[in-house]
DNA-binding transcriptional ArsR family regulator
Amino acid sequence: MSVVLLLAGATSASFAVGESPLAELTAALHAYTEPEHHPGAWRWARGLDESLDSELRRRIRAWSPLWASYRARYLVPLHAAGDRTLTQELADIEALPQARFAELTGYAIRGGNTGEPLDLVLTDPAQQKGLRATAELRSTTRAELADRLLTSPTALRTDLIELLNSAADALASDLAKARRLIKSRLPALRRALSADGPAQALTGLDASAAYLPDPPRVVFDKFHHGIVPVATTRCLITPSVFGRPHLLVKHEQGFPAVIQFPLLPEGSEQPGHSTVHLRLEVLRDPQRQRIARAIAREPLTPTELARRSGMTVPQVSRHLARLRDAGLVTVDHVGRRAYYQLNLEPVRRIGEDLLTALFR
């Protein structure tokens, strides 16, 4: 499945670029409560677990369904304007009509907005029964949140906003560091959107993105389906440090679309699904594994590899070509000789890259 951004009629003015303190806060809370989804944040999450007040830690986990894989829509910007303060973004949550807040909360508790609607969940017994049943099947935590929503939605919203403020205070140092990196990347993103156009700028956000020309659209490989006509639905693009490796696309009727994309460290690589698959496939072959073992230790020519492995030079050359196509070897030419060596970094990262591709 995929989320498709239709670009017909869209211009750079159809997009806004900016930071979102709320989206970054809830991305951090997700990385903390589900560190298995965030290989790069494991150590941070363990350290935070030790430093947080025990009561705050308990409350964050009790509310975690709202910022799980399906994040509540109001936990990313409700307005198509970036660079607003956390206070302003939380005020937007408070200003939501109660029925709309309950509907969006119900979708997050349930884990998606497909299936039966929840637009009347505060008054319709059938919708209430459906939400309770689904929540109970998922977890006790979700069932407890569903019960709180249906019995006291006003108190639930008040408690949620208080928790988000408390969490922001507790994570202030980490969020400030993330904010500095986010703000440093915004000018380049704005220039790319203006100079290169939406298609190229959007496909550059994530390795899973692809541009298709007829009709012009950008496709993000996701676990749900959605179509966003950007010409009529304004789109906010906001970078994230704690969201890595996820690319989040939120598109709820009545609100702007929001793309929260992962920022990578300067110079780092983010292989797409096809690259990870290719590397795993290439290294499955026992003969290529033998070659990789040899050139992990020292650079060797195809002739020397053939002598050591018992293969012919053409056989070795074909295996080296597959390894090179997968980005797993480097080649150093000295005169007429080519010396091959295993590219250790992508090999070392295969496990982490696979997790990143699975959770993107």
